[in-house]
Predict the 3D structure of the following.
Amino acid sequence: MKAPRLISLILVLALAFGLVSGASAQDVSGDLEIFSWWTGGGEEAGLNALIERFSELYPEVNVINSAVAGGSGVNARAVLTTRMLGGDPPDTFQVHAGEELNALWVEAGLMEPLNDIYEENGWLDDFPQGLLDLISDDEGNIYVVPVNIHRSNVLWYVPGNLEEWGVTVPADWDEFLNTTCPALQEAGVTPLSVGENWTQAHLWESVALAELGAEGYNGLWNGETNWASPEVVGVFETFGQILDCTNEDRNALTWQDASQMVAEGRAAFNVMGDWAAGYFLVDLALEPGEGFAWAPSPGTEGVFMMLSDTFGLPKNAPNPEAVRAWLSFLGTPEAQDIFNPLKGSLPANTSANIDDPELYNAYFQEAYEDWTTNVIVGSQAHGAVAPQAFTNGFANIIATFAADRDAASASASAAELALQTGVGR
Ligand code: GAL
């Protein structure tokens, strides 16, 4: 047999046995329902850019984007739970790395392990071990593919506005409460903007981190910090004073509304995760460092409070083959570099091109520096350290506290909730 014919024969056989990866892309077909809460701005743009590239790679797959609006997934998670428990899972869904994934879906045996995808792509060396630990069970089964790393403890502001109002970025909450807040109130500016309930819980975790320190904050989740202790009562007291420096219409505002107050000079500061960077960059087309700027939330310098958005394969997903194709794409450096510059987050895959300043501007460069050098803790408001049951109950505690300002009672209720939901055990 002549050499070219032998090569063709080998190629035909390889194709027949699915050994050439390009062949399988054409073979994967059918609907792929992607469930998330990314419905606007940089979040939606990032998701759409991923879907667009995936559709080029897998032209026979029909992507159905069934995102449910509502920041931090407050509405999406309720819909997802109904569907999962009703035996009607989407093909793949957004879920936070850590307890949001583990305590619910993995524990209930509703997720498929994805180790083969990690092995085929060499990702065991590409994703940070600490992140892999958050998405694996004790037997080493890995259940999801992370698309990003977000930071929760960020303070956003506009440098020119601070100058005009004669204030500087507060180093800690003492300075904010004693100096910054009164000066801004005097100038008729809202010192700190905040939005609906979950954004208040988001603020609370940054305050807790500042007041308790990284070890004390971690202790809330590993059982070493007593939720009913004077220290936690103190966190609520500080949180209450901070709320007095915020806008009164908070419950009516989304996180984007609260970010916009800062961008438009109606408020001086906002504490939000760095999806706000995606909002400033994509929705408002602002220049990093000028139109918006950032600092660790007061008192948390040197600590990076992380969370990660991931996608997995639920058991009984209608089209598991298409999900595997989607997940194999999501973890690649290419996908991570498409998504994260729009989303405001860092790539989770360490072989993505974070060093490229064309892709990742000054915000990302600084966040990456902190991600790789700071002490890392996990976000409660975004599923890393506490189960969904705790987060749901804590939302009520925050709502009650915002109304009655009873710090001792909030701390006692949180202690009871922690006990009921297995936090710290
Ligand atoms: C978080 C999520 C982010 C962003 C944010 C606001 O829970 O991890 O990706 O979507 O909510 O909706």
